[in-house]
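Thread title: Can someone regenerate the structure for this chain?

I was given the following input by a collaborator and told the matching structure tokens would be attached. They weren't. Posting the sequence so someone can regenerate them.
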Amino acid sequence: MHRKRIRNIVGGTALTVLVSFGTASGTGAAAPAANQPSLESAAAAKKQAGRGKPKPDARNVVLAVHGGTGALKRGEVAAEVEKAYRNGLTKALRAGGKVLERDGDSVDAVQAAVTVLEDNPLFNAGKGAVFNADAQHELDASIMQGKDLNAGAVAGVRNVKNPVLAARAVMDKTRHVMLSGEGADGFAAQVGLETVTQDYYFTQRRWDQLMEDKKEQRDAPPAGSEAEQRQHGTVGAVAVDERKDVAAATSTGGLSNKMPGRVGDSPIVGAGVYANNDTLAMSATGTGEVFIRAATGTQISGMMEFGKADLAEATYEVVVNRIPQLDATGAVIALDPSGTFDAPHSSSGLLHGYLTADGQIHTKVFRDESPANS
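Best answer:
Regenerated them for you:
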């Protein structure tokens, strides 16, 4: 029973935030191109460490969140920027942790965590959503519970403050799995969710990004980690509660300068989100079209359920080995009912953090904190 241990720590001044800085050996090295991840060195590092197969990042995890692919570079970001990202991840973990502390369920925990991330303009979801090619905002979100495979999603919403709440309402209040566009916006208003005008989503950073993307569309596109950080700021959360029920949620503004109406993997069950008590809960971020084609979530789950792979083996195989074969990169956060957690990525890094059963919070924002084969 981990609830009491969390109750004594989470949400108060006694909460311990652990930051593991790793080594700076990767600092200054050029990032691999987005479609050419450097996997050989990662594999060699594993063998040198004597690890015959991928191992999970952590155990006894009850909640994890991510803020998208890419990673900050040591020496190239101000201390206040690092602090802002760590604080954003920590605040989300505290919000979800408080739900679990009160013996709440995993669905409520991931909803609480993602809502906090949607309200943070640093991330490409909710308030910080990118612009599409028509200088409009279209947002997607999903949520899923592992005990019965129930799920809800919204796509292309334009006036919902917190799309993850709309996804939850679709799951709880309709017989459908996904609503899109005007129908989703209208439904959200009908059930009493907070609605906003398009101006709410505006941030100067995302506007400047759109202008740069339009210019580079005429010239040459960015490559490597720069492209990852600019294109992928999707957020997500996974959790397991005391009943061993898992849940996952994902939310995004999509791609900057995307075609109006474009929908990526984030609201697609089995691609950008998946939860099954027999296997895992996962939330994905990366090249959405490829994550849909690869059915990333269901593929990982199937390897665990039918191929008898463990969490680390299945996530590593799909994210690090198979996704790059489709000329794409990305990452997932994954959690099984036992509390085993992994966050493999084929991108240059992954902004993420997790909460353990004893109330400790870990955040990882630098590339060397989150090796490519983790």
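The mean pLDDT is 86.
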